[in-house]
Specification:
Blueprint lengths: L3 H5 L2 H8 L3 H23 L18 H14 L3 H8 L3 H19 L5 H8 L5 H15 L7
Helix pairs in contact: 3-6, 5-6
Length: about 150
């Protein structure tokens, strides 16, 4: 299991895993803590809630370790399966923590690009794709793909 104290002993590894120095991590944790607690409180006070606020099993990891997990997920783009082995949690817990709690709060705290900008850049079709399709059709019609000379 990976722990924060193990990574702190090797600052170069800490930066490779998270993209931050231990000092920057502490500053982010101080900035994130009130925002995260406010988001949890707001989420637990919805009117259609079936259970009381605070009911259920407590978190297996503290906020420091969950922040470490989120930063490793964002910086290294690892799978949630690998995170479940590294932090000794179930994949469903990892997914729930990242999707519902940590990533929305991190997006509001960190200077990250908006998801709409990401989708505009990476999901827009490239214009060169259409010329490649036209070439493949022309090559077939000319006989190169049909085996003619």
């Amino acid at each position: 299991m990976i722990t924060l104290s193990k990574l702190r002993r090797k600052p170069r590894h800490f930066r490779a895993f998270t993209g931050l120095t231990p000092f920057e991590f502490d500053a982010l944790l101080v900035e994130l803590t009130p925002v995260y607690k406010a988001a949890l409180t707001q989420r637990s006070q919805t009117p259609d809630r079936l259970r009381d606020a605070g009911a259920g099993h407590p978190f297996a990891l503290g906020l420091r370790e969950r922040l470490l997990m989120g930063l490793i997920y964002l910086h290294l783009s690892v799978s949630q399966t690998l995170l479940s082995y590294l932090f000794d949690l179930d994949e469903s817990n990892i997914s729930r923590e990242l999707r519902l709690r940590l990533l929305p709060v991190l997006q509001s705290v960190l200077p990250t690009p908006l998801s709409e900008a990401y989708f505009d850049i990476y999901l827009a079709p490239a214009y060169t794709e259409f010329t490649v399709d036209a070439w493949s059709l022309n090559l077939y019609l000319w006989g190169y793909l049909a085996g003619r000379k």
